[in-house]
Amino acid sequence: MTRWVWQKESRETVIYVVNAFIKAGIEDSQIIAVTRTMKDKFGLSSEDETEEVVKRYLVTRKCV
User: Fold this and answer.
1) How far separated are the first and last CA of the chain, in Å rounded?
2) Triad 52, 19, 26: Cα angle to 5°
3) Measuring CA to CA, how many Å separate 25 from each of 8, 19, 28, 29, 30?
4) How far apart are CA 2 and CA 49, in angstroms?
5) How confident is the model at residue 2, as a pLDDT?
6) Which helix (H) or strand (E) holds 1?
7) Which helix (H) or strand (E) holds 64?
């Protein structure tokens, strides 16, 4: 399970980046593929962890 406690700045970066991709009309699968490579920028330890965080944010965003 992914460690959900990470720096506020990193969380805000994930949200900003994903929202920008959504606004640009990028499909979820493409967002996930691109953001996997941004693990260092998000302060996460692996591409798998980054994918999980982004997927959960996308699901949460659609449920709200």
Assistant:
1) 23
2) 85
3) 26, 10, 9, 12, 10
4) 6
5) 45
6) none
7) none
What lies within 8 Å, CB to CB, of 27 at 6+ separation is none
Q: Are 44 and 50 in contact (CB under 8 A)?
A: yes
Contact 6, 29 (CB under 8 A): no
Per-residue tens of pLDDT for the chain, all 64 residues: 444 455 666 788 999 999 999 999 999 999 999 999 999 988 888 999 999 999 999 999 888 5
Spell out where the chain has E strands: none
Yes or no: say if 37 and 47 are a contact pair by the CB < 8 Å rule.
yes
Residues 6+ apart with CB under 8 A from 50: 35, 36, 38, 39, 42, 44
